[in-house]
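Structure in, sequence out. Go:
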């Protein structure tokens, strides 16, 4: 392949000739072992462009822009990363704005997803691909900041003529790959400028971009593990700033499920895989200080001194739990006998809060994002889902998330009030309206909700005649008590719930269509417990809550067999059934462990052995080994991919005698 191009233009008259010849000469020089002033990372990229990608400089017409659908497919999986990276990108822009830099965030394939500039969009920059949707893969755009940083896995600066294609020879691009906890490239961050910057400034910008990437990786790690306990290990007080420290996300048994850092500086972890899935005591010793004892703040840190196995150098250690978790979890993982505070978030007004209710389930977390965005927009909310899925708890969370949190939250269960009394219960009545009425009359529950939130539970059980009156209240914003002609103005947020299919009830003529459209401004379906992606976490969280209600200190742990039974249940009664089962187990257990024989007999105690999860009988099944290796033996990721519990996965591994590679 002739990268010099064809015809007379290539013989000496082409303005690209000198640069092209330099690239060819450099590739040949490197192959002969000679050294030039071109950095090796750039020379290697030039070689790839010529030998692997077969790029022809004479035919390059500029950047490729992906289609709208391709852009969406690239951006959607990185929604969380884009969100957590934004403040760091803005901070970086503040540092480099005087030099007319533009910041780009790309996906792992080099497609620019987000572009930030301190000045209005520049058409000249767009023409050379500094825009959202531009494809900066090395095999398409040649040597460039984004593509070469992804291909090399390192932070790079590509200065002007170091680009493979002359279209980009006015750009100075500094980029670094963004890695996930498993060391895989998931994105890249680039700072590009058309200003001919002095050479001594380039290392400064390179360090700024690299430091920003380290902070983005840390933010992303913490957001992914926002409901897990985080252990930080630093060699010095500055470790948290330089990004060379170690962060571990722990499960409730104190085993690391994800790990970030430990690859640079003084703290180097030689066997990262040994840490994943292992108890902390197997890989390090930590001597906790007394600062955490007796602390009532459930988000308090434990501080200590750590020593990694095989190293005598002491390190700083800190342990934090999620804000919605309990002090019992902190005490358990820190291995102390500290006095534990009851889970305040769980007991406050009987509500858990939206974040706790959502947990790590993607459907619930999307519901919470919707509510956070629309809670004060005067839109009525309709919650649907099976009985026991926590619709009232979620409604209370909606109330507490809005601007009316300090006002009344009035609950009316339409299925539990006798039909003969429901009208007077909702709308109130005047003195002497009917025999047996209170002498002073009654205000009515709807009027009591004025200024706050009215929650109508099981609204599908409301009689048709009463639906007409409720529709009038919602349409006119006023209620007329029985026996009165004087309306009372009311203003409230409305949340309704039903386990029935209201749209089908409308079709069957059992629910008013006009009322349905009045109450269903935001429609959310709460998943059943058996369908939740975080069922294991939900069970452990419910255990803590029930233990606190019964006056326990730290919640007793569940034996593996008992936990397997609970995970395998179908839970037709959902959270209501789960909490009752845990209350029974707590009340009947002795000691600090709940064993299988302490679970209520009405559970299917054989469920763990007869559940409909796929069972792998072949001891050398290649599929299981392949999934384990692809996920670097991260048990949580493998269990998530196979859609089974961690306990089931451990059982499969033990049954097949699989051993983590050393």
């Amino acid at each position: 392949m002739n990268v010099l191009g064809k015809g007379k233009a290539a013989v000496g008259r082409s303005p690209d000739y000198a640069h092209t010849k330099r690239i060819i000469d450099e590739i040949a020089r490197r192959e002969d072992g000679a050294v030039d002033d071109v950095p090796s990372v750039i020379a290697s990229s030039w070689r790839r462009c010529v030998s692997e990608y077969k790029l022809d400089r004479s035919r390059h017409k500029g950047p490729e822009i992906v289609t709208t659908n391709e852009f969406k497919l690239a951006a959607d999986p990185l929604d969380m990363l884009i969100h957590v990276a934004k403040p760091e990108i803005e901070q970086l822009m503040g540092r480099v704005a005087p030099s007319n830099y533009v910041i780009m965030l790309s996906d792992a394939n080099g497609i620019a997803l987000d572009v930030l500039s301190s000045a209005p969009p520049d058409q000249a920059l767009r023409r050379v691909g500094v825009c959202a949707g531009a494809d900066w893969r090395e095999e398409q755009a040649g040597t460039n900041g984004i593509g070469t940083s992804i291909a090399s896995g390192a932070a790079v600066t590509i200065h002007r003529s170091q680009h493979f294609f002359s279209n980009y020879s006015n750009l100075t691009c500094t980029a670094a790959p963004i890695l996930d906890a498993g060391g895989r490239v998931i994105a890249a961050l680039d700072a590009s400028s058309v200003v001919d910057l002095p050479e001594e400034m380039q290392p400064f910008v390179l360090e700024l971009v690299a430091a920003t990437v380290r902070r983005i990786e840390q933010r992303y790690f913490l957001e992914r593990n926002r409901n897990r306990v985080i252990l930080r290990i630093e060699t010095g007080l500055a470790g948290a700033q330089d990004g060379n420290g170690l962060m571990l996300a722990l499960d409730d048994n104190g085993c690391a499920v994800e790990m970030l850092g430990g690859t640079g500086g003084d703290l180097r972890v030689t066997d990262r895989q040994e840490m994943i899935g292992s108890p902390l005591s197997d890989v390090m010793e930590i001597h906790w200080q007394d600062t955490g004892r007796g602390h009532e703040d459930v988000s308090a840190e434990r501080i200590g001194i750590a020593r990694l196995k095989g190293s005598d150098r002491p390190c700083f250690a800190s342990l934090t739990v999620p804000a919605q978790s309990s002090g019992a979890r902190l005490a358990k993982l820190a291995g102390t006998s500290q006095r534990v505070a009851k889970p305040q978030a769980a007991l406050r007004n009987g509500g858990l809060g939206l974040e706790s209710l959502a947990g790590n389930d993607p459907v619930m977390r999307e519901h919470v994002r919707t509510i956070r965005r629309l809670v004060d927009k005067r839109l009525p909310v309709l919650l649907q889902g099976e009985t026991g899925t926590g619709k009232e708890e979620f409604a209370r969370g909606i109330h507490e998330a809005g601007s009316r949190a300090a006002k009344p939250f009035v609950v009316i269960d339409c299925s539990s009030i006798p039909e003969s009394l429901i009208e007077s219960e909702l709308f109130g009545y005047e003195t002497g309206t009917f025999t047996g009425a209170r002498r002073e009359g009654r205000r009515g529950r709807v009027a009591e909700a004025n200024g706050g939130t009215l929650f109508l539970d099981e609204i599908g059980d409301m009689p048709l005649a009463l639906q007409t009156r409720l529709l009038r209240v919602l349409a006119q914003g006023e209620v007329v008590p029985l026996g009165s002609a004087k309306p009372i103005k009311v203003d409230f947020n409305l949340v309704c719930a039903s386990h029935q299919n209201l749209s089908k009830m409308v079709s069957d003529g059992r629910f008013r269509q006009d009322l349905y459209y009045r109450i269903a401004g935001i429609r959310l379906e709460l998943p059943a417990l058996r369908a939740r992606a975080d069922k294991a976490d939900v069970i452990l969280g419910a255990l803590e809550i029930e233990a606190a209600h019964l006056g326990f200190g730290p919640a007793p742990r569940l034996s593996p067999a008992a936990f397997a039974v609970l995970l395998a249940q179908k839970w037709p009664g959902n959270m209501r059934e789960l909490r009752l089962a845990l209350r029974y187990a707590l009340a009947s257990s002795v000691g600090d462990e709940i064993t299988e024989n302490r679970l209520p007999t009405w559970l299917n105690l054989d469920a763990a052995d007869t559940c409909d999860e796929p069972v792998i009988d072949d001891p050398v099944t290649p599929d299981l080994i392949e999934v384990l290796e692809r996920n670097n033996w991260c048990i949580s990721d493998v269990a998530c991919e196979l859609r089974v519990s961690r306990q089931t996965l451990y059982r499969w591994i033990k049954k097949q005698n699989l051993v983590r590679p050393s």
